[in-house]
Amino acid sequence: MIQVRIKNESLLDATLHTRLINLFSTIKGTVPYMRDFGISGDALDMPTDRAVNYLAAEMAEACEQWEPSVRVASVTPDYKNCAEGRVTMIVEVVDNG
To answer: Where are the beta strands (DSSP E) in 1-97?
Structure first.
């Protein structure tokens, strides 16, 4: 299971923060009429180290397409709950203007 946390959320307004969490937590193909919204679910079957890199790229691309006002500056995995099958992706976004 993938969890997402925005690193610099205090710099974002609440609406943008919510939209980014929704974007990064949604699997592509699950939103009717917006089949490209979200990130690919392919990482769920990958080894953890490959999945982290894959997800970072997916998040950057999704942000570019769906939230062009910001861009992904970095994605850092937090492995604290990895033994339980969860990795938290800590995403840092910056203004794209």
So the answer is: 2-6, 70-78, 87-95
Provide the residue type at 50 as one letter.
R
pLDDT in tens, 23-44: 998 999 999 999 999 999 888 8
**CA-based max dimension of the chain:** 39
Adjacent-strand bridge partners of 77: 89
Provide the 3-class DSSP secondary structure of residue 24: helix
Question: What is the pTM for the complete model shown?
Answer: 0.84
Encoded tokens for 22 = 């929704």
Could you tell me the CA-to-CA distances from 15 to 22, 80, 90 in Å, in that order? 11, 28, 18
